[in-house]
Design brief:
single chain, Phenylalanyl-tRNA Synthetase, Chain B, domain 3, 7-stranded mixed beta sheet, alpha+beta, 6-stranded antiparallel beta sheet, OB fold (Dihydrolipoamide Acetyltransferase, E2P), 800 residues, Phenylalanyl-tRNA Synthetase, Chain B, domain 1
């Protein structure tokens, strides 16, 4: 938001200088991003009249001018195409610094002709980027007049950053109101001189919206004007518009832009003679409607956009941009002025869809003062009458009633939330100057929120306003007491699980990616989703239409994009939500990883080694170990979801709860045409992990046995269908003290092994507890193991 210092003083009675104003703006949360003062020596600039002009004898495009300024005359060589005899221009004499070209002027010889100073363009004086000609001044200006004041270049331009909730400060008056509340000046009353109605409006309103969409346009006002002259705007208005980056067009358009910047009220003007009929209709666009905008572009609308139309079609994209067909021009003598309230969400969606940005859209998106349409029309009417002449009609409107919000405010909440004691009378003054109406009773205050503060909804918002104006710098510094205690973790359980999972996978060679939580319908169905209740009403695009039931397809898509670019060895993971239904309990936080390509590339020492089923299994166990999950209690089942390969996948369960699924991804789900690249993935359901038990304050002492452990190897012939895990668990039950560890070191099927059998070789670590074991002790233990396995599983010891 840009404005000039002099413009601000139209609304704020203050003796502060521009630097003091900038300091105050920063203190009240209106951050100043730029302060521009003109670099040119504006005091040296003169009004000059050309009393003689002739072509340069040695240059076709140059003119030799004799100019008069003050009581003097001098000669200037000028190349501007608009140099004319007896016209008045801006002259900078020798010795003047020109900021636009970063040059101090000196007497010069140009093609053998002496030149003293320069006739200046707008670009050279930093007014605008226009350098097609020099600045032509009106005949009425006197030679001794202060030209820098006339052009407005003796002013300062302030630019502030406006947060999305402060739409009320997108006008100079809103900024002045905040400064007044801060105490750096007094807010001047807004001059509203309502003109007499001289005729009935030529145009009337019609709102043609369904009952459930009436909120899209709750208020709209308008007024007709006749016998106006759409002349060039006065210089003071031109100067201000140029200073804030707006291009002057014509007096009618300039007034609408000026009012928007001055009081934050967007307006639009229609040429009455170009409107088909005498009614403008607010409606929803129809699919295929064409809109020819003022920016020279044509847009095709869908069936959801708010528009204003006549009998011929769309005249205005409500709250965003007017149409070229009914726009005013230099020949306009009768026009209709519009001011309305439109739904911010509707404006934002339409603007984003059509990729149209405008000053009006910027303000409507942030919410406008509900009472501003009528004020804007009245305020603009006086300016139009003063500049363009003519007469105006009655104001026509359709408006819903809306009362201002009431907030029950407990004064004590200020101390509670901020720790600051503020005098009650000071609080009342702050709120009143900001436009709030304060009604006191015995216990609480009843605070009525002004119509321009859409962002204030509760007591906490009022406290924010009070402390902002009171001054953050006045909050006293309190030294907190030093306590000797261990800081509690700042992260919640879910956050810690996610963080530790990320760290673990990063150390195992994975790269983290973040993808959309959406899929196309086909992939959603492939991975267990695609239901209608997970279909997005307003998707970003057609291939992101459903909430994802799994992250695996997202990771596959990322892999495929990399594979297209020749990157085939990939390990990617993502931690995020998946959706199995539309209830809260159907949303899970999942750690998902995928690997493809080579684990080890072929080289002089090693042959190529690809990722496989056991790599992703190890990844799961590594993550669960880091999360302090009791991995030993897990059971493995071959019941993985159908998007895994049916013969190369598995589940980890804790009781009946599925903790993780893993394996090779079904080739039909990988979107690979040749199906040559194998993807291995896993999913860990963090929300299904049991909450960790409370830890003891200190770890138990490490028990080191002074007796040496020993191992014995056994090879059993077991049924193909028997899980090795069941075999191991049964052996552990024989002696939980002596048998410390059991591991599989070989599984064999082939020669000399029956087809329905497999050979499993186990290494069993035996740790004596209080005495060394004799050969007889070891023989007895071995016999127990062999007998137990035979009785339980009918498994025989295999002889080599």
């Amino acid at each position: 938001m840009k404005f000039t210092f002099s413009w601000l003083k139209d609304h704020l009675n203050t003796s502060a200088n521009v630097n003091e104003i900038v300091d105050c703006l920063n203190k009240i949360g209106l951050e100043v991003s730029n302060l521009k003062t003109y670099k040119t020596d504006v005091k040296n600039l003169k009004v000059a009249k050309i009393i003689d002009v002739k072509k340069h004898p040695n240059a076709d495009k140059l003119n030799v001018c004799i100019i008069q300024f003050d009581e003097e005359q001098t000669q200037v060589v000028c190349g501007a195409p608009n140099v004319k005899l007896n016209k008045k221009y801006v002259f900078a004499p020798s010795g003047t610094y020109i900021g636009g070209i970063d040059l101090t002027l000196k007497k010069a010889i140009i093609r053998d002709i002496e030149s003293n100073g320069m006739l200046c363009s707008e670009k050279e004086l930093e007014i605008s980027d226009d350098h097609n000609g020099i600045i032509e001044l009106p005949e009425s200006i006197n030679l001794n007049e202060n030209v820098s004041n006339y052009l407005g270049i003796d002013d300062s331009i302030i630019e502030i950053e406006i947060t999305p909730n402060r739409g009320d400060c997108l006008g100079v008056r809103g900024i002045a109101r905040d400064l007044s509340a801060f105490g750096i000046g007094e807010l001047k009353p807004l001059k509203l001189n309502n003109l007499n109605d001289e005729f009935n409006s030529s145009i009337n309103w019609e709102i043609k919206l369904p009952d459930d969409k009436k909120s899209l346009c709750p208020s709209i006002f308008g007024r007709s004007f006749r016998n106006v002259k759409n002349i060039k705007s006065p210089q003071w208005m031109v100067n201000r518009l140029l200073a804030v980056g707006l291009r002057p067009i014509s007096s009618i358009v300039d007034v609408t832009n000026y009012v928007m910047m001055d009081i934050g009220r967007p307006l639009h003007a229609y040429d009455v003679n170009k409107i088909d009929g005498n009614t403008l209709t607010v409606r929803i666009s129809e699919k295929g409607d064409q809109f020819n905008a003022l920016n020279g572009k044509t847009y095709e609308l869908d069936d959801s956009m708010l528009v204003i139309s006549d009998k011929k079609g769309v005249d205005d994209l409500a709250g965003i941009m007017g149409g070229s067909r009914t726009g005013v021009d230099e020949n306009t003598t009768e026009f209709f002025l519009e001011a309305a309230i439109f739904c911010p969400i509707s404006i934002a969606k339409t603007g984003r869809y059509l990729n149209i940005n405008s000053d009006a859209r910027y303000r409507f998106e942030r919410g406008l003062d509900f009472n501003s349409p009528e004020v804007g029309v009245i305020y603009a009417s006086k300016l139009i009458n003063d500049i363009c002449g003519g007469s105006c009609s009655n104001i026509v409107s359709i408006a819903q009633k809306k009362s201002n919000k009431d907030i029950i405010f407990d004064f004590k909440i200020i101390k509670k939330l901020t720790g600051v004691d503020i005098d009650e009378s000071k609080v009342e003054v702050i709120l009143t100057k900001l436009g709030f109406e304060v009604k006191k009773n015995n216990k609480n205050w009843n605070v009525v929120v002004p119509s321009w503060r859409n962002d204030v909804e509760r007591s906490e918002d009022l406290v924010e306003e009070i402390i902002r104006i009171f001054g953050y710098e006045k909050i006293p510094t309190n030294v907190l007491p030093v306590k000797s205690y261990i800081t509690k973790p700042s992260l919640g359980l879910k956050q810690r699980l996610s963080l530790y999972s990320r760290k673990c996978l990063s150390t195992r060679g994975f790269n983290e990616v973040i993808t959309f939580s959406f899929l196309d319908k086909l992939n959603a169905k492939r991975f267990g989703g695609g239901e209608e209740n997970l279909n997005l009403v307003n998707p970003i695009s057609s291939d992101l239409s459903h909430l994802r039931p799994s992250i695996i397809p997202n990771l596959i898509n990322v892999c495929n994009e990399n594979i297209k670019r020749g990157i085939t060895n990939l390990s990617l993971f993502e931690v995020g939500p998946i959706y199995k239904g539309d209830n809260c309990e159907d949303q899970y936080n999942v750690v998902t990883g995928i690997r493809c390509g080579n684990k080890i590339n072929k080289n002089w020492k090693n042959s190529e080694l690809k990722f496989d089923f056991y790599d992703v299994k190890s990844d799961i166990l590594a993550v669960l170990n880091v999360l302090e999950f009791p991995v030993s209690r897990l059971k493995i089942y071959s019941e993985a979801p159908n998007y895994f390969h049916p013969g190369r996948s598995a589940l980890f369960k804790l009781g009946n709860i599925t903790i993780a699924s893993f394996g090779q991804i079904n080739p039909f789900c990988t979107n690979q045409k040749d199906k040559k690249i194998e993807f291995f993935g896993f999913e860990i359901y963090l929300d299904k992990l049991p909450s960790p038990k409370r830890k003891v304050l200190s770890k138990p002492l490490l028990k080191l046995n002074h007796l040496q452990s020993l191992s014995r190897d056994f090879s059993f012939l077991i049924d193909n269908e028997l899980n090795v895990e069941d075999l191991i668990n049964e052996i552990k039950l024989i002696d939980k003290i002596l048998i410390q560890e059991i591991s599989v070191f070989d599984v064999y099927q082939g020669n000399n092994i029956p087809k329905d059998k497999k050979s499993v070789s186990l290494s069993i670590v035996i740790q004596p507890a209080d005495k060394s074991l004799t050969d007889d002790d070891l023989e007895k233990l071995s016999s127990k193991i062999i007998d137990r396995v035979f009785k339980t599983f009918a498994a025989e010891i295999r002889s080599h």
